[in-house]
Amino acid sequence: MYGIIDCDNCYVSCERVFRPDLKHKPVVVLSNNDGCIVARSNEAKKMGIRAGMPYYQLQEKFPGNQITVFSSNYELYGELTARVVSLIRQEAPNYFRYSIDECFVNLKKMESTDLKQWGERMHQKVLRYVGMPISIGIAPNKTLAKVASHFAKKYPGYKHCCFIDNEEKRIKALKLFPVEDVWGIGRRYAAKLKAMDIKTAWDFASQRPEWVRYNFHNVVIFRTWRELNGEDCVPEEEIAKKKSICTSRSFNGMVTELADLKTHISNYAARCAEKLRKEGSVASSVSVFVRTNPFREDLPQYENFMEIPLYTATNSTITIVKACVAALEKIYRPGYYYKKAGVIVMQTTSEDAIQTTLFDINAEQFDKLKKLDRVLDKINKVNGSETVVLGSQQYTPKTGKGKADVFANAIKHEFRSPNPTTRWRDIIRLK
Amino acid sequence: MAKVKILGKEFSHQNELKFADAIKAGFPSPAEDYRHDGLDFNRDLIRHPEATFYGRVDGDSMVEAGISDGDLAVIDRAVEATHGDVIVAYLNEEFTIKFLDLSHQKEGYIELKPANPKYQPIRISADDDFEVWGVVVWTIKPWKR
Q: Does this model's pTM top 0.90?
């Protein structure tokens, strides 16, 4: 059995940990730069606020409503979700973190326990420890676990844990489940299925295998069909591999200064963006990690990791470098000798799919960035790699104000909450 | 006069013993059996790291319990609040630190009790929007600023 554990309306729930007064009230969180809405509380969803709606439309469309708005605060979300993952690891050591708010767990060794009860207890524990509501879907494979997780969220009767453990439940669930929401079925295939009058996951799963092979010459779709029918065929390594590109280096010597690390990270980020463009894919989140040399036990040790979601999936060098530098600034601590750093871009999807989610940058700017990248790639191809680079990829003098600083300070975050778990000055006040 | 017991820090895990297991010649170090990691507040005083949060005391409502303005409170959300605990509650859009008094539960209310005669106990009944946010397990008081 597999489980998928995810945080309910993750960013909103993080904000509510230190604002219990916002429970049961409409809350939204904005994207990087306060462009559009990326997370909504259930109350905000019920009002009809859509994900991706530009922030400025909120006042126009919902006048007179008390809606609490937050800028995204990834420092807070990163710390609180790390606590959640740590609790999951204690209960289910065989886990795989899939994104900032989702974790797959392999429950094969726990099948003698009552998994439904285990899931309910897990929910209660995480809620009590961290203040974070989570939902758990459990099923014989990952695709069905994802289906179960939707039900766990939607119907309070499940007590946050839905377990598809027999044929009857599987069929019932698939009949209620829209085919476009099935994990592994992209937008393009969803449209094709709709046109063929396939509406629910059951409509799809109950087709004959020849029909699936004939209509979709695609191994992923066929595998999804098999999983919906109860087989376990998506290997863990593959979701990890397919979902990320990593560029990292161990440094020759050791690096201590932020400015130097920024140069390295900018270069790794630029290389990842280039790789993405070469493959025709885009990233919807970037992560940066740094660590000291674990073999130098005489030196203080530090390692950290931070993921920043990119609301609009992209392969633009500028956007990806900017996000990585922002992440680095959050995890950099002075006083350590860094030995290794790297950039991981995650959740790469096909470039064709992004046009429809283009909310928070305007089309004109998007085209400009695209043109710029094309020129960049062309020059570097003809004249040798890294002939033309971003300012932040070049060495910034320690005293000077390099491009990297300008980048980092250009991000807008008007409604950002404090960081009570990562900054002493922000810890809660007790009256 | 109060007696002070000094808890010595153990340093015997340092480098000189590192290869003791591998070297077969000679006698094993007599200190080997006593290898022990040093005392560590994070490891020894924080029982539930995932559930632990910090708060700064703001005001004098608990001063007679030895909790004063500016003290640091270590809050554990994992332990269950029982009668007499110092708790952090969220009330009227702010966090408050008080004693939890459950002795009137049968009469349908509980009380949050300050430790300062200047302040009144806060009575909470079932329909109030109230939650115990966490239990204070330690306070840290700076003596030298």
A: no
